Amino acid sequence: MSPRHMLHIGVDPGLPGALAVVDGAARLQMAASWWAVNKEAHRITTRLWWADADMQPTALGERSRLSLVGDWLACGIAHGLHGHVATLTCEELFVKKEAGGGAPILLTEWYAASICVLIEHACNVPTRRVRAVTWRAQVYGRGGGGLDGPAAKRVALQRGPGLVSGLAAALDACKPPRGKPPHHLAEAAMIAKWGRDQWRHRQRPHREPQARMFGGGSR
Hints:
By secondary structure, the chain is an alpha/beta fold.
């Protein structure tokens, strides 16, 4: 199958969180953004965007568990998109040092598993974890690895649409009512692009270094 038809999934876990699917040409094929409408009742709202106009618009409405959203997304990717899923990349979580910082991280890890495990089974692809500092440095270039907090959100929204075709439309379609464009969706698209770039690098023919002769020539 042509590299252009390979699909690459990026997940920005958490609540709010997002998922993006790009093809080999860095064109967005599917996007999803979710956020809590009632954390106590674990009710979640999800907005979806598809590159295929025949599948627009799509909204899941409220769901009681993120695993239900994950199941729907896994089915949509496996059966609603044309192409083979080559990579599934999820941003790696880190434990904050301040007191009480462990519980939210554990909950975010559960959110990530609720999405990724179901996609793994539906698409027969393992999840690769990547640190934010790693993918930002490689996608944005110099200074990208040092981005964090509001600066990282701003750069994702500003530069993301220029790096992944279709992202601008998805950001507009997936934002909450009376809300701002979801920065986590922009970052999910960048994570998917990072996974695509890594996959393309691994597909390049490996050339053995030429043996160097003492006289300076090669053989």
